[in-house]
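If your schedule permits, I should be very grateful for your opinion on a structural question. Please examine both parts with care and let me know of anything in them that strikes you as inconsistent. The record follows directly beneath this note:
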Amino acid sequence: MGSLAIFAVLVIALILSGCGGGGSDGATTEPRPKSVPPHFHQAHYDVRIYNGWPQYESDKKVGSYLESAWHDGGNSDVDIMIASRPAENAGSAMANAELARIQAEQLPGYKARVLKKVKVGKQPAVSFGFALPKKAFFGYFFERCGTSIIVRDWMPPSEYSTYTTSAREMASSIRIVCPS
C-alpha cells in the first residue's frame, strides 16, 4: 500500500474516532421511503443516491460506527461514505470536526479548505474540508434523533468543488430513523 493510501486510511480512522453529536433535537419519526433504488435503507438512516453510484459497503462495522460507501463508477478516485452511530456521550458536531481538523493537520502536505457551521437542507451541520497533495477530503458532521452522522468524500484535489456538491446532495437526502 502506498504512503498516500496509508495516510487516507489513517485519516478516515481518525475522523471516525472523533465523530459525534451532542444530544437530540427532539425530531419526530419520519416515514421511510419506498425501498426502490436509488433509496438505501441503513440501520440509522435512509438516503437517496441521486448520482446512481453503486454501493460497495452497507453498514459495515468500523469501531463504534456503521459505515456505508458508494463509489463513482466513472472515477475510481472518488468515494462518498456515510458513518453513523448513536450520539450518546459524544461531543458536538463542531467539536468533532475540530478534532478531525487537528488530526488531519498532522498529515504531510495538509492544506485547510473549510471548517464552518452550515445547513444541509434544513439540518444544522459542520462542514470540514482539506487537501493533501494527491487527495482531498470533504465532510459534513451532524446529529439528529440521537444519531451522529458523517458524510465524507475523498476525491482528487482538482475535483474538490464538483464532489463537494455531490456530498451536499447526499447529506441533504439523509433521513434519520428516529425512535417512535
